[in-house]
Amino acid sequence: MTAMTRWEYLTVPLLIHATKQILDNYGSEGWELVQVVPGPNPDSLVAYLKRPLSAA
Predict the structure, then answer these.
(1) What is the pTM of this model?
(2) Does residue 23 contact residue 47 with C-beta atoms inside 8 Å?
(3) Structural contact between residues 9 and 47, judged by C-beta atoms closer than 8 angstroms
(4) Are 52 and 5 in contact (CB under 8 A)?
(5) Which of 16, 42, 47, 56 is the most buried (most CB within 10 A)?
(6) pLDDT tens, 22-50?
(7) What three-state secondary structure class fits 56?
(8) pLDDT higher than 80, residue 8
(9) Nearest Cα to 22, choosing from 33, 9, 7?
């Protein structure tokens, strides 16, 4: 039987003026961008990220 990948998830507010820097920082920690959606106000965005759980 094949082992199934287990994931951990993170939601991150994105600052419009620093979006690339924020995503690059999380990407360097192994986080993969899943989706970006509008935030609670018109000037904000929220990123949903995932990465594989390390074996415990």
Answers:
(1) 0.84
(2) yes
(3) no
(4) yes
(5) 47
(6) 999 999 999 999 999 999 988 889 999 99
(7) coil
(8) yes
(9) 33
In whole angstroms, what separates CA 24 from the centre of its chain? 10
For residue 21, the model assigns a pLDDT of 96
Q: Which letter does DSSP use for residue 1 in this model?
A: -
Looking up tokens 């998830």 gives 9
DSSP 4-47: PPPEEEEEEEE-GGGHHHHHHHHHHTT-EEEEEEE-SSTT-EEE
- What is the Cβ-side half-sphere exposure of residue 45, based on CA atoms within 13 angstroms? 14
The type of residue at 3 is A
Handedness of CA 7, 41, 27, 35 (dihedral sign): positive
